[in-house]
Design goal:
- This protein has two domains: 206 residues, FAD/NAD(P)-binding domain; 108 residues, FAD/NAD(P)-binding domain (3-Layer(bba) Sandwich).
- Helix content is 21%, strand content 20%.
- Strands 1, 2, 3, 4, 5, 6 and 17 form a seven-stranded mixed beta sheet that branches. A five-stranded parallel beta sheet has the order 7-14-8-9-10, with helices on one face.
- The chain contains six helices and 17 strands.
- By secondary structure, the chain is an alpha/beta fold.
- Bound molecules: flavin-adenine dinucleotide.
- The site of flavin-adenine dinucleotide has 35 residues, from helix 1 and strand 2.
Length: 385
């Protein structure tokens, strides 16, 4: 049996919830299909010591401030899970957990999208895809990666230093040796977590020297800079450089502590991996029991493959959030290519609002019988971008 609705939102993490909030405000009928059995999106899988890079009051979805916690400026992942769980409930968002979307196809008669799931099919007039990146960890091709006989993990597999206990290299005082690769917030935080634990020997590797933001700058500034960039681009004043112009790593307290204790100095990228560790450009060798790849993600958009929209690096070309080749499809979250700071808690609200407005307008036009005259890729008024 096929069920019908105005909009199917795929993914019930922060991006899907923000979409739901704004679709509700537009008075549209919708459902949010989420593969995870419980609320919280990818936050429920992040490592134990993770700290948000922005304070709670600057990490809020539309309509509801994230509660602060006395004595803790940068909340942990569990706090975000609790917030998203409450958000979903508070707004009565129709999230169907435990439902994985396998494919989105154009309807044979051309005026709807068929959303195929492991729990049956939905027919929607529009779709918002908000499936994040967590399920598509990326590891770069480093020479010798297949030779290394120790453990290889990605950010998604890391939980805590205790996972690395056990007999280690005697030359390292019996400690386990771990190489952490990646110069972003994940790499810095995980390297700091291991370094501060003291039971693990850590080598932190970054492709270019790590760029810490000044200690008095946090995620608030990142968002401000992203906003300033969007405004400058909108007003034709040129590209101000975005958040990358500030630095890559927010010096949250554990990162600062490890850095200030001299335990967080980075080495340049390895020349190649060997069976037992890493060889450097100068020919020297470091033994390792494990490598943690904090090397990023790709968008999880395999379910959209039947629409044939894929561009370079797995990105689907968009105008704002709307897919260029399919005006009934919007993409939310994923990265800056779907809107400045779209993949952050505070940043997703605006693109979610724009997507919901755009869909409401499209559906009104379709209902008025003007759909056939709608240009495929063009915005009808673009006023909200
Ligand atoms: P997700 O949280 O990944 O949610 C996607 C949802 O879609 C999941 O529930 C998943 O089950 C579901 N899904 C996936 N595929 C399907 C499918 N085929 N069918 C149905 N459902 C599906 N942002 C900040 O604002 N502040 C921070 O401090 C911060 N720190 C970060 C630290 C790390 C380590 C990472 C990785 C990211 C961080 N971010 C931070 C960025 C961002 O906020 C998160 O990545 C966020 O989880 C993205 O939300 P999302 O809703 O787009 O995706």
């Amino acid at each position: 049996m096929t069920r019908h609705t105005d909009v199917v939102v795929i993914g019930g993490g922060q991006a899907g919830l923000a979409a739901g909030y704004h679709l509700r405000r537009q008075g549209l009928d919708f459902v949010v299909l989420d593969a995870d059995p419980a609320p919280g999106g990818s936050w429920q899988y992040m490592w134990d010591s993770l700290r948000l890079f922005s304070p709670a009051e600057h990490s809020s979805l539309p309509g509801r401030l994230m509660p602060t916690r006395p004595g803790r400026t940068y909340p942990g992942a569990a706090h975000v899970v609790a917030y998203l769980t409450d958000y979903e409930k508070r707004y009565g968002l129709p999230v169907q957990h435990g439902t994985r979307v396998d494919a989105v196809r154009r309807d044979d008669d051309g005026d709807g999208l068929m959303v195929e799931t492991d729990a049956g099919t939905w027919r929607a007039r529009a779709v918002i895809s908000a499936t994040g990146t967590w399920s598509r960890p990326f590891v770069p091709a480093v020479p010798g990666r297949g030779l290394f006989t120790g453990r290889q993990l990605h950010t998604v597999d890391y939980r805590c230093p205790a996972d690395f206990t056990g007999p280690g290299d005697l030359a390292a005082g019996g400690r386990r040796r771990v190489i952490v690769v990646g110069g972003g917030n994940s790499g810095a935080q995980i390297a700091a977590d291991l370094a501060l634990d003291g039971n693990v020997g850590v080598t932190w590797v970054t492709r270019r020297p790590p760029r810490f933001l000044p200690d008095d700058i946090d995620g608030r500034a990142l968002f401000d800079v992203a906003t300033a960039r969007r405004r400058a681009l909108e007003q034709g004043r040129g590209d101000t450089g975005g958040v990358a112009s500030l630095g890559d790593i927010v010096a949250v307290p554990p990162v600062r502590a490890a850095r200030d204790a001299g335990r967080l100095s980075a080495r340049p990228m390895v020349a190649q991996l060997t069976a037992t560790g890493a060889r450097w450009a100068d020919g020297s060798h470091t033994r390792a029991d494990a490598i943690v790849w904090c090397t990023g993600f790709r968008p999880a958009v395999a379910h959209l493959a039947p629409l044939g929209l894929r561009g370079p690096r797995g990105h689907i070309p968009t105008d704002g959030t709307r897919a260029l080749g399919e005006p009934r499809l919007h993409l939310l979250g994923y990265g800056d290519w779907t809107g400045p700071a779209s993949a952050t808690l505070i940043g997703v609200g605006r693109p979610a609002r724009d997507a919901a407005r755009d869909i409401a307008r499209l559906l009104r036009q379709t209902a008025a019988g003007s759909a056939s005259s709608l240009p495929i890729a063009a915005s009808t008024d673009g006023s909200t971008r």
